[in-house]
Each structure stands twice: as C-alpha cells, then as structure tokens.
Design a protein that fits this description.
With about 325 residues, the chain is α/β, with parallel strands linked by helices. About 40% of the residues lie in helices and about 15% in strands. It has 10 helices and 13 strands. It starts with a strand and ends with a helix. Bound molecules: nicotinamide-adenine-dinucleotide and uridine-5'-diphosphate (UDP).
C-alpha cells in the first residue's frame, strides 16, 4: 500500500534522494525543510509531482500532519555548517527529535532517526560496531553535532520505552554523491570542486586520517530497508561502506579521475578530527541483507559528472557562490 511519508530535511542532499526514491515507489512524500543548508534546486524536479508536497518549516517548532512514517533527517551535517551556529544545531537535533517523536507517538507510526558515525567520536576501536559507546569530547567545536546526535538517540530510545511505538535509528557513515552542496566543506565535494577548477587541493593534517565513503544510492537502499524491517528491530544500525581509504588516497584518486592539474597543499587539522573511521556492517548484513554495492571509483565518477555540470552553468544559484556565513544567514 502506498504511504504518506514525512521527511524532515527532505530538501537536503540525502533527503532529496530519499524523496525521489519514495516517490518513484508510488508513495506520497511530505518534504519539511527550512532551507538552512540546502537549496530548492535539489527538489525543483519534484515540485510538479502531485504526490510531492513541500512544507517550509523549522523542525524546532512543533508540526502536525497526518502521515504513516517519518524519516527525521533535518540537521546541518557538514562541520562548517553545524559549527556556524552550534546552538541552533543542538536545538535542531534535540527539539526537532522531540517534536517529531511527539508526532509519531500521537499517530502511532514508525519514525527513523538519521544518526551518525560521529556519535563514536575519535574511535579507539576499529572498525566500529554498534556496541561501541564512543570517544566524544563533550565541550569541543564538534560537540554540538556529536552530542546533539547522541542526545537525539537517547530521546528516541526513551520515547520508545515509555510510549511503546516503533523507532529505527541508523548511524550513517560518510556518504557522498550528486546534490552535495558544493561549498559545504565536506571532503568529497571540496576535492572534486577544487580538482575540476585546477585549484589547490586542501589536505587537513598529513592526510593519513581515514574515512569510509558510501555512495548515496546504497545508503538510500539501506535506510528504506531499515524502515521496512520488523517493528521489534530498533537499531542502532550502522549504514556505510567499509571500503576505507586515507584522505591523501582520496585526493589522488580524484585528481586521477578528473584529469586535474591540481597540487596538494597541507592545512592544519581541525580540532577533534577523528583519525580513523570504518563501519562494521555485520548487523546490517544479518538483519537487512544489506551490502553497499557501488565501489568508490564508480560513485566518484557519478559525483564528478554532477559537479562538472553544476560548475559549467553560467548562473549557479546565488547561495552556491557566496561565503558560508552568507549561506547560513
Ligand atoms: P544536508 O545539510 O544536505 O541536509 C540537511 C537538511 O536539513 C537541509 O535541507 C537543511 O536545510 C535541513 N534543516 C537543517 N536544520 C533544519 C531545521 N531546523 N528545520 C528544518 N530543516 C532543517 O545534509 P545531509 O548530508 O543530507 O544530512 C541529512 C541527515 O543525515 C542529517 O541529519 C545528518 O546528520 C545525517 N548524516 C549525514 C551524513 C552524510 O555523510 N551526508 C553522515 C551522517 C549523518
Ligand atoms: N578534509 C580535508 N580537506 C578538506 C575537507 C576535509 O582534508 O578540504 C578532511 C577532514 O579533516 C576529515 C576528512 O577529510 O579528516 C573528512 O571530512 P568531512 O568534513 O568530509 O567529514 P567528517 O570529518 O565529518 O567525517
């Protein structure tokens, strides 16, 4: 049966892909977003679809609508975005979760939380299984995001225990693909934009830190499978691609795939930047039979294709070209 699905943060990078997929499957999608870190361009192609409804709203303010499921994605996700207004980031994680959980409780429906690998902080065990409780600095510049998301997980499980309705918590590891914001400062978008413009590629620290990058289509498959899994499976569940690489290797791969003349430059490592990150996905394999299928090079080629077109446009939407503080003002 087709459902009415509410997606908070539905106009963002992940939210726009999720909206598209759920619409293609014949569902009604209500996309709630305040455009804090995204642009209408991400969902422009969906606006004509009668099954799609856009609601411009801030998730920190209560909102009521009839729905069958909720995906709670609203939250700035890149370090420069979430650090730009850390109090707002915390409010979005915590008040946004409470508002959406109260709605889910009232309607008695399933709700999925987009949590993050950041809840493991700078991990001391590798790869990271869901049972690892993390190594997070509670007072640093990343804490508004890490602790906000940790607190959101707590709130999800408390609502679940207290009011007995189904919740789903996924911990998303670094995901990339078309519709990433070209100025969001994340490593994949930064390196591709720099490489395509033959600008210096900015490596923070020595570039020996690792990440494991998941292509957006694989992530969306995992999120939908998790939502459709039996109600008694709450997670938390890691979703990510365990193919790990150093940031230097990523830069070299992107230079190679773009045929760029860019040189590497080294800049200071931001505080509390995790040294290593790689998901253990044993639980996702066991519970969802989910395994990411798109290798890094293939996903990078698709993403490079997207940015090539975006950068070739004479009129890039205004908030894609200005400084970060202006984007977020
Ligand atoms: P994004 O910044 O592209 O999308 C976030 C969306 O939420 C944007 O459209 C933004 O405008 C909206 N938003 C922010 N604050 C809001 C508010 N107060 N009210 C309403 N809307 C608001 O980021 P993304 O990469 O698409 O991330 C989506 C979710 O997935 C986030 O919750 C993020 O923490 C989580 N996540 C993403 C990654 C990743 O690698 N992309 C990794 C881990 C977790
Ligand atoms: N990074 C980098 N150069 C950049 C942007 C990021 O070297 O231009 C590094 C960053 O320090 C981190 C890694 O790439 O070690 C991933 O950064 P990103 O912001 O994409 O994600 P996160 O740190 O949240 O995993």
């Amino acid at each position: 049966m087709n459902k009415r699905i509410l997606i908070t943060g539905g106009a963002g990078f992940i939210g726009s892909h999720l909206s598209e997929r759920l619409l293609n499957d014949g569902n009604n999608v209500i996309c709630l977003d305040n455009f804090h870190t995204s642009n209408k361009a991400n969902i422009e192609h969906l606006l004509e679809n009668p099954l799609f409804k856009l609601v411009q709203h801030d998730v920190t303010i209560p909102y009521f609508i009839e729905a069958d499921e909720i995906y709670n994605l609203a939250c700035p996700a890149s370090p420069i975005h979430y650090q730009n207004n850390p109090i707002k980031t915390m409010k979005t994680s915590i008040l946004g979760s409470i508002n959406m959980l109260e709605l889910a409780e009232k309607l008695g429906i399933k709700i999925l939380q987009a949590s993050t690998s950041e809840i493991y902080g700078d991990p001391e065990i590798h790869p990271q299984p869901e049972s690892y409780r993390g190594n997070v600095n509670p007072i640093g510049t990343r804490s508004c995001y890490d602790e906000g998301k940790r607190c959101a997980e707590t709130i999800f499980f408390d609502f679940h225990r207290q009011y007995k309705f189904p919740i789903k918590v996924v911990r998303i590891f670094n995901t990339y693909g078309p519709r990433m914001h070209p100025r969001d400062g994340r490593v994949v978008s930064n390196f591709i934009v720099q490489a395509l413009q033959n600008q210096e590629i900015t490596i923070y620290g020595k570039g020996h830190q690792t990440r494991s990058f998941c292509y957006i289509d694989d992530l969306i498959d995992g999120m939908i499978k998790m939502m459709q899994s039996p109600d008694d499976f709450t997670g938390p569940l890691n979703l990510g691609n365990p193919q790990e690489c150093t940031i230097l290797e990523l830069a070299e791969k992107i230079i190679d795939l773009t045929g760029s003349q860019s040189k590497l430059i080294f800049k200071p490592l931001p505080p509390d930047d995790p040294c290593r990150r790689k998901p253990s996905i044993d639980l996702a394999i066991k519970k969802l039979k989910w395994v990411p299928e798109i290798p890094l090079e293939q996903g990078l080629m698709k993403t490079i294709g997207y940015f090539r077109i975006l950068l070739s446009r004479p009129l890039i939407p205004i908030n894609f070209c200005v400084s970060h503080s202006s984007i977020l003002s």
